[in-house]
Design a protein that fits this description.
Distance between the termini: 37 Å
CATH topology: Helix Hairpins
Largest sheet: none
CATH class: Mainly Alpha
Number of domains: 1
Structural class: mainly alpha
Radius of gyration: 40 Å
Order of helices and strands: HH
Helix content: over 70%
Amino acid sequence: MKKILLACLAAAVFLITCIAASAQEDLKLQKLEEKVKIAQEKLDKADAKVNSADSLISAGKSIIQEAEVEVRALEAEKKQLDKAHFAELKPLEKQLRSKDKDEANSAKEEIKASETKYKEDLKGWNASYKEALKKYEAGKKMVQKGEENMKKAKDARKEAEATLKEAEQALSKAEKAK
């Protein structure tokens, strides 16, 4: 009877040890699955950062293109302003050399008025031109910031991919060992 009792006790101890070992393995698998889940979340966050940086670069490039178009249009407008001003002054300068004093004085006044109008037009043009240049610079800064963010995001993504791969390998090894 003692032998049967000892055999039952040994079987119970063995069974409890097996259950405890199984529970430890299940706990270990759960921890590995959690690591895989966390690594996947990090990879998703890194992908989101890459997409964000890419959209920042795209937005910056489109702003640069818009600004370049505006600058070209403004440069053409400046040429038109200069051309119109020169065309307006040419006959007035001929009148200025006239022997008739009244005609020369009226030409002087018209030249002053023309110069004033030209300066005002040029002020408006300068303001528009400065705005276009600011827009261009803002686009360049956006592209630059996006490229910096892209580099960081790609590094983080690479690291997250490596971590995920390691976690998945550890999990698959633990599942095979079970």
